[in-house]
Amino acid sequence: MRVGIIGATGYGGAELLRLLHQHPHVEEVVLYTSSKEGMNIQDSYPHVSTIYHQTLQSIDHTSLKQEVDTVFLATPPGVSAEWSRKIAEAGCQVIDLSGDLRLEDPAVYEKWYKREAAPLDLIKEAVYGLPEWNRKEIETANIISNPGCYPTATLLGLAPLVKNKLIETDSIIVDAKSGTSGAGRSPSAITHFSEMNENFKIYQINQHKHIPEIEQNLQKWDKEIPNITFQPHLVPMVRGIMATIYAKANQELTEKALRDIYEQSYENERFVRIRPEGAYPATKEVYGSNYCDIGVTFDERTGRITVVSVIDNVVKGASGQAIQNYNIMNGFEESTGLTLVPMYP
Ligand SMILES: NC(=O)C1=CN([C@@H]2O[C@H](COP(=O)(O)OP(=O)(O)OC[C@H]3O[C@@H](n4cnc5c(N)ncnc54)[C@H](OP(=O)(O)O)[C@@H]3O)[C@@H](O)[C@H]2O)C=CC1
Ligand SMILES: CC(=O)N[C@@H](CCC(=O)OP(=O)(O)O)C(=O)O
């Protein structure tokens, strides 16, 4: 198959290049740009030189179907809202890595993203691509809305508790930390080296755009779940997210019963690994891979459950999950091109 990447010069695009290179069903990758037409991808990313030789080309939806079968949009908010419909009507599959099509209520999108929402019919057509909990819908989708990085770690971590109604619904607190690649390639005063090295920052207190995305999905699983507390932080590393999730048990629990529920929930999932009793994952243990690793424990003293969920934000949190969705949409084995062992140390 032939795939196109819009936004190939960004971090999500670069990770798509790395992963698609080893995908056996991808014969051709076409690179599109909004600002660097004619530039060779090697000039932006020397690490893929000799592997990719393409020059970036501008996007023309009228000729798209002659060039590619599937388009990955690794672009900032607003682009997919404008382009997804045209790409789908041209006859191509769309996998959108941005948040444009994730929120079902346009008013909610406009409140949190502070920009105009995509047309409602486009939002309705898009399927939320969290394969572990939404595989059936993804199989027949033509437009995928790839989950955000924090929601991926958080929802995979919370799903067994919420789906099995094990917690006080109003007790969820998510304390999340991310490496700086989550902010994309453009330098900013918040993420540049002197600001972030030997530093640890809280940001967007009670305002992060992933809050409504997490709530929307939790409420689909259990409509009793009210608004949650989710708080992101920046840590001085490049890749990785750790979501530490706290919730109060609504019944008597044992450590073993809790772990059994997590193990059963994910026993058939290739990319979710549950740590054994007393072990908790670190971000480096998923670095460069499509895994989400989860550790869980119950504090009998406080009645609180702690879940630790880690992903590589650029892989399971973005491009790896996008390829997982691509595989499901096209009937390929779900882990095709994604069987990467994490890099360590
Ligand atoms: N980085 C991460 O960990 C994650 C990112 N995401 C989401 O994925 C998307 C891409 O993120 P990321 O790669 O980090 O971002 P970057 O800022 O690194 O790259 C975005 C790319 O989009 C292209 N672009 C910018 N404006 C336009 C436009 N108007 N039309 C078309 N293309 C445009 C640019 O390429 P060019 O100038 O060549 O067009 C740019 O290289 C974002 O929506 C982000 O929120 C989701 C999960 C995790
Ligand atoms: C560290 C950092 O800045 N992370 C980004 C998360 C990027 C992301 O996943 O955003 P989308 O929802 O647009 O895909 C942020 O907090 O906005």
From TrEMBL:
Q: Which residues form the Semialdehyde dehydrogenase NAD-binding domain?
A: 2-141
Any one of the GO BP annotations? L-arginine biosynthetic process
* Similarity comment: Belongs to the NAGSA dehydrogenase family. Type 1 subfamily.
Q: What is its EC number?
A: 1.2.1.38
Q: InterPro entries recorded for this chain?
A: AGPR, AGPR_AS, AGPR_dimerisation_dom, AGPR_type-1, NAD(P)-bd_dom_sf, Semialdehyde_DH_NAD-bd
Q: In which pathway does it act?
A: Amino-acid biosynthesis; L-arginine biosynthesis; N(2)-acetyl-L-ornithine from L-glutamate: step 3/4
Could you list this entry's UniProt keywords, alphabetically sorted. Answer: Amino-acid biosynthesis, Arginine biosynthesis, Cytoplasm, NADP, Oxidoreductase
State the GO CC annotations.
Answer: cytoplasm
Membrane-spanning ranges:
none
What gene does the UniProt entry assign to this protein?
argC
> Which protein are we looking at?
N-acetyl-gamma-glutamyl-phosphate reductase
Reaction catalysed by this chain? Answer: N-acetyl-L-glutamate 5-semialdehyde + phosphate + NADP(+) = N-acetyl-L-glutamyl 5-phosphate + NADPH + H(+)
Question: What enzyme class is recorded for this protein?
Answer: oxidoreductase
Q: Which residues form the active site?
A: C149
MF annotations from Gene Ontology: N-acetyl-gamma-glutamyl-phosphate reductase activity; NAD binding; NADP+ binding
Briefly state the protein's biological role: Catalyzes the NADPH-dependent reduction of N-acetyl-5-glutamyl phosphate to yield N-acetyl-L-glutamate 5-semialdehyde.
Q: Where in the cell is it found?
A: Cytoplasm
Q: What is the lineage of its organism?
A: Bacteria, Bacillati, Bacillota, Bacilli, Bacillales
